[in-house]
Amino acid sequence: MSEEQKTIDPAAEATNAAEASDATEATDGAEAPQREEADLVAELQARLAEAEALAAEYKDQYLRAAADYRNFKRRTDEQRAELVRSAGADLILKLLPVLDDFERAFASVPPEIAETPWWEGTQLILHKLRLILESQNVKPIEALGQDFDPNFHEAVLYEPAEGQEGKVIAELQKGYMLGDRVLRPSMVKVGRG
User: Fold this and answer.
1) For residue 193, is it within any domain?
2) CATH of the domain at 186
3) What is the pTM for the complete model shown?
4) What is the pLDDT of residues 79-94, one digit of tens each?
5) Residue 4 placed within a domain
6) DSSP code at position 101
């Protein structure tokens, strides 16, 4: 090579440097969008995971709220039914002495009155009262001859009775059940052996 060729042309050198710089920038430029895309994908994945966690939390809260509402509704319905039963029980408790009076009156009617037509009408009143109580699920407690049970019977008297130890030998006042609940226990006389 001649010295002339060895002399570097500043314009050519600037062009070569610019081309080299462009090539470096081109590779750096290609890597930059790839890095930006990777960062964007990572950010989107993080946001997606966060949104999924939030959605799962909201779903859990919804399911709990729905279950709480169902439980609240069930409790409210049970309380309402119990309130109706209690209100009915109060009225029935007030009617039971009237029923007792009717039954005592029927037990002590003289034969000459028992055959009159108006007395038959009075018997119909008692029958209707019993039907109303039955329609409200009120049933008498069977006591006579049964074993004494303090859940259903109230012992008022004890009397010596051969072979009747712990048995109800007389019913002094009839007891009643309202469904499966004791409305009024039977007042009874219990035998002692």
Assistant:
1) yes
2) 2.30.22.10
3) 0.56
4) 888 877 777 788 888 8
5) no
6) H
